[in-house]
Design goal:
Largest sheet: 7 strands, mixed
Low-confidence stretches: 511-517
Structural class: alpha/beta
Distance between the termini: 69 Å
Shape: globular
Radius of gyration: 27 Å
Helix content: 25-40%
Length: about 525
Amino acid sequence: MSHSEIDDLKQEIVSLRSELQRARQQSDSSYYFSAEAKQDLTRETHLPDTGLPAKTVKTIIENAHALDFDQKLNTSSYVNVSFEPEEEEVALMGLSVNLADQTVYPKSYAMHDSVVNMIADMWHCPRPDDFEEYGVYPGAGTVGSTEACLLAGLALKFRWRAWYKKRHGLSDDVVRAMRPNVVISTCYQAAWEKLFKYLDIEPRLVQPSSHTFKIDPDGVRESIDEKTMAVVCIMGNHYGGQYDPVWDVDKVIGELNEANDWQVGIHVDAASGGFIAPFQKDLPDWDFRLPNVLSISSSGHKYGESCCGTGWVVWREREDLSEHVAISVTYLGGKADSYTLNFSRPASGVYVQFYKLLRFGLAGYRQSEENMMQNADFLRTELSAMRYEDKPRFVLLDDGNKHCLPVVTAMLNPDAGFTYDDIDLQHVLSQHHWYVSGYKMNYQHPITEETLSLFHDKKTDQTMFRIVVKGNLTRTMAKDLMESFCAALEFLDAVDFSSLHGVTTKKMRHKDQRVVTNHC
């Protein structure tokens, strides 16, 4: 070996020792003294050459999280953000359990079935004849209510195909080429947009009035035909929290089925209301007590108080419904039925939902519902009292404090002549760390993508806003929110927004917030 090669090796050893020493110092010192503090690794496009210390990676994620809105001040979202320490430990425990492996984790899946049974009982599902065989009502835990809606839609589509094939004596190939429809309000959530696009189902959209936000039974009657799989009734639309009158729609469907020998059913989208409506007094029957309700879905991570990504679907019966989406799986030496669209998923959602059901009990959920409704009513009263030049500042649009979600929905009074709108208000409120959703009263048609009016009596550019009251929104926080409203309105009143000549107030928003769709 030449002298130059030896010198090169010595230099490389020195360099490697220096790099090793730097790595050791970096692992022992603060992230803020490291080279990584000069990089934006949250926008990296390539894997790093070497791994980083655990504390460094954690700090990077913590700093990125700090630049988001505080989730406790996000009144746009229905998702639960409050967890007890024991609950967080349970969620972490579930991360390493694959719920698809029913034969490997039988006790975890027993908790899943127990949750399905408790929810089915809460929704008054009739006890199936095969309960002793299965030990559980026909239902499943899902990844949020979107998967639950897709599963319910699949079951309804297969059910409709079998019925339509027999009714008209068609072959499988012919009936599979036909496109069934679903009747639903324009206040639908994003899950149904996915159903229409992914499963090739025609949406029959019924525009409600801005005075009710509810599907009109007469509009349902006009929209149904023999290709209708089901009517979707929304128990708590995300705009205003109102409940569709499932009880009236059930009567209409019963009459049409009897007159035409149809078999149209109802799916209740209780994404938000599934854990609120059961605890509200004197509410008309909306669940499986109605004969045409075939399935119900809900988000466990909303008012069910579970962790994000938790959903549930329950069918009235297995035969001709859930049997269409059940897959018998032989996996890791055992055999089990799977309802979900995917297989592998952590048990965290099931664990936390099981925890919350046992932790709250009926009395706890009832008390939580009462607290949220009363805090929502406090906000509603405060907004109603606000005036501008002797006129009410706001027009309230929600259903008040009975038989609805704890949601406050309003719009700036059109008669007051404001130069700003509800979305401008949203952006200014965000400077006070509160996130309140502003919306235009329009939606994009899920198939044509045409922008249409959400309501039959409002223009597409009319705006509104909503405040979602969750369990973490205490009266102290509600008072601070109203103080922020007053400060925001004082600023907005002082600015002539009509003279801004197209400058958008989105620039006043928190820089990382994006609006993807109205239907979220």
